[in-house]
Each structure stands twice: as C-alpha cells, then as structure tokens.
Amino acid sequence: MDFCAGQHVSSAERPCVERSRAHGPPPRHLLEPSLLHRSPAGPGRRRPSRPPSVAAAVAAAVLAVLVALLPGQALAAHSTSEPSASSATTVAAEPACGTPRPGSFTCFALRRTDVPATLGLRRGQADPDGYSPADLRAAYGLPADGGAGATIAIVDAYDNPGAEADLAVYRRQYGLPACTSDNGCFRKVDEHGAAAYPAADDGWAGEISLDLDMVSAIAPDAHLLLVEADSASSDDLGTAENTAVSLGARYVSNSWGGYSDDSGQLAYDEAYFNHPGVAVVFSSGDDGYGASYPASSPYVTAVGGTSLARDGSTRGWNESVWNATTVDGNGQQHWGAPGSGCSDVEPKPAFQSAVDCAGRSVADVSAVADPATGVAVYNSFSDGGWNVYGGTSASAPIIAGVYALAGTPVSGTYPAAYPYQAPGALHDVTQGDDASCADRSVCGHGPTPDCTPAFTCSAQPGYDGPSGLGTPDGTTAFRPGPHGTVSGSVTDAGTGRRPAPRSRSATTGRPPTRGAPTGWTYRRARTR
C-alpha cells in the first residue's frame, strides 16, 4: 500500500499535484525531498534538517505579523471573527518529523521556532510558554485529577531515550503526580513488547514528548505505555498498535498518518485498527482538506484541530477551526489546518448515518491544534527543553486522555461512536475552515472543486469536517452507552396503581430487545 504525507491523491497523480494561488501553498511533504542525516550523537540517530541560523532570521520576520500577548493569554492573537484561508494567522513553526519514505507515515507535530527553547524557565517566568494542563482542563471542563486505573498507550515510531526523564520534568513543573517506571506508572516497550528499542530520531522524539505530556495533562492519574515502532512504516506502526492493545491498553493515542486512495487500506483496518472495546484515537492531519489515513478508518476516532483563546464569555474560551500559514526554519511557507473530508475508500460507519457523506467522514471531534495557541512541551533530547507545539498531534492525545477520564469502553463497541450519541455535550465549533474552498488542479484530471459538500472543510452548527461534532465539554460525550433523559410514570405491576410519593430509585438502560448494545443490562428498580 502506498502512502504520501500530503494532499490525498493517487500514486500516479502525486508527482504533479498543484494548488491554485487562492488555495494556498502545497502540502509540505509533496514538495520537499527527504532530508535526513546523522546527528552528532553518532550512528543510529536520525535528525530532520533544521538549520537554526535560518530559523532565527525567519522568526524575527514572522514576529512582525504576530500580535503581542497579554499576560496569561494565548501565544498569538486570536480573532473572534470568522477566519478564512486569506486571513489566516501566520506563525513561525516547522514540522517535527521529516518527509516519510514511500509506504511510511509521518507525525503531525508542529514546533514553534520563534519561542526560544529553554532547559529551565526564563527570568520572570512562572510557567513555560504555551498552554498548561490547568489551561486545557479549564477550556474543556475537565477535573484536576482522574484516569486512575486506566492505561493509555502512546504509539509512535523510533526511540526517545529521554522520554521518561523529560516526562518527569513536565509533570513536576505542573504539580502532577510522578509517573515513573519505578512506581509502575510508566512503561516503555518496542513494537513487540520487549526492550529492544529502535534507533532514536530527533523529530519523532519531539512527537513522543508531546504525546506523553498531553495525556498527562488531561488524565494525570492514568498509567502510560509508550510503544516505539522500529520505523514509521505502516507495518511497524501497525504491529506496535496491536502490541499496545495486547498489553492491556484500552486507550491508544496515535499522532501520525498519511494519505492514500488504495483500497488495500481496508485490509490494514482489519489487521491493525479493529479493536472493539478500545478507544483508538488518531490525528486527522495538518494539511487541511483531504481525509488522511488511518484517521479515516471507521474503527478509530478521528481528531481535528482548533485555535483556542480566552475571552469574556461564560465559558471563558472561544474556538474556531485552525487555519494558519506556518514558516519553517528554511523560510518556506506551509499551509496548516486540520485534515478533513469524505473518504472515497472507507465505508460509511453506522454512527455517521446523519452525515451527508457517502463514505467515512473525517473528523469526529477536535481539540486545540493551532501552534499559534499551542501547548507547552518538554523535550531535552532533541529540542533543548521547553517548547511550544501544535498540530493535530496535540489534539489527539488530549482526546485520548478525555476518553480515559470518561470510563472504560464497553466490550464489543467502538468508542468513535460515543460522541454521536451525545453531540449536545460538546462545544460546537461554528467558525472557520481548513481550506479556501477554491478549485485545485490535479494533473490529468483538471480542476477539481474542494469542499463538496461545504461542511467537509467549513465549520457550521452541528457536524462539520474540520472540527467534527466539536470539542470536549466535560466527559459526557465520551462515555459508553446511550445518553439522554428518561421521563414517564411508575406504576405497581400488581395493583396498577402509582406508588405513594416517596423516594424512588431506578437503574436506566436499554430493555432486553434485539440490537441492545453489548454490555448493557436492564434491571427493575425497587420503590420504597
């Protein structure tokens, strides 16, 4: 099966994909050759090209278009007006992972280059730059603790030798309980569940730190299982996915993917991602309109991305679809937005019956992903300490953590369906888009309209592609089973009379009829 980490096109079309000027610059991975070289650390360590001298110059130029922050606000100004591709923010950021080889995936982490990396806090700082765990919990109505008894797996490629030590720094900074291999909270394995760790990679090391920090921020009491694949190939990452589940994880966070129109991915779905009773979560991608894979698998929860900023509302926060131009360390501009779209390969799942799409529609839910309103991450191995990250690599582990707070998935069910049972229990994102909705030209096919139908890339009330059903508002939408209210009267089956108006209790659920969800029982409650 062939994957490319850019716009969704066939292998025959891939070399000559173009975007119109109105649509923005082409996806980064369709333009740039793989630039990987040995790091000074010696053989076996891979590092994407990242010229620091150029990055500094670019950062200075970008600062001219960024707005200074008020204390405690997001890293870049966030307009409450509806953004569009032409008015998207500009931010100095670059992809953490290099261009993948054919048949491999890439990670979706974006690292800010205009925020200096520091091993400690700068003078006068109380907290690192970027949103903290407390910020994220406040924005999404989540408790300060939770996740006890749950194991969240993080599946990534290559090794981050400093993962556990850096995680300790992050958790200590924010007052989170220690999570170490010594106390049994943290475990790292290779793709086969052993300790033969793969070669280290600077880019994926940043991804690993981002994932560990975000699940810690949301579910600080959960155990963490880091599964490192030997490479970013579909088979290695798929093997790691199965290992995570076999080791007992009921929540699996994945911040990687690619693009394919190959029907062979259906076989990959069955081999690696069909895990009923497990919340398998995937990033939707960072290249805007176009359904990425494995996020488009009907077995997983696809997570889009938003810009998140404080405001004076009752909630105290506002969100719109993330849509920004990023400038990398080479001075090249790239268009950043959550992946979305209607798959022409994956079948339409039953839980999306009300979505106007013939196949699987991406995304399901979303969370903050804009690097301009990014999150604090600690990675001393390859990024110099404290950094600010974005991309849907940030939103996916956030959602995995919310699932862990919500409770154990019901055996035999697919947690991707849960939010569709309670869409009103989410923050509906109604502003912004992830594309210009102009025509694009695909070699050999002529102009092809984007965003058909429009909800696939433009936010609207209810479901839309970039943000799905919305962002977390507590954990209700991520809980198993039917949601709603029950009304009616209670009568005594023997006399046909209503009981005296005294205290009553009842256990709700579905009656034992055909099609009742696995794991649900119906019990008659006593009146007293």
End-to-end separation? 63 Å
Largest sheet: 8 strands, mixed
Q: What is the CATH superfamily label? A: Peptidase S8/S53 domain
For this structure, the CATH topology is Rossmann fold
| Radius of gyration, taken over Cα atoms and rounded to an integer in Å | 23 Å
For this entry, give a set of tags:
single chain; 528 residues; alpha/beta; Rossmann fold; 8 helices
Q: What does this entry look like structurally?
A:
- This protein has 528 residues and is an alpha/beta fold.
- The protein has one domain: 3-Layer(aba) Sandwich (Rossmann fold).
- The protein has eight helices and 25 strands.
- Strands 4, 6, 13, 16, 17, 18, 20 and 21 form an eight-stranded mixed β-sheet that branches. Strands 7, 8, 9, 10, 12, 14, 15 and 19 form an eight-stranded mixed β-sheet that branches. Strands 1-23-24 form a three-stranded antiparallel β-sheet, with no helix packed on it.
- Helix 3 (133-139) crosses helix 5, helix 4 runs parallel beside helix 5 (202-218) and helix 6 (234-246) packs parallel to helix 7 (265-273).
- It is globular, with a radius of gyration of 23 Å.
Q: TL;DR?
A:
By secondary structure, the chain is α/β, with parallel strands linked by helices.
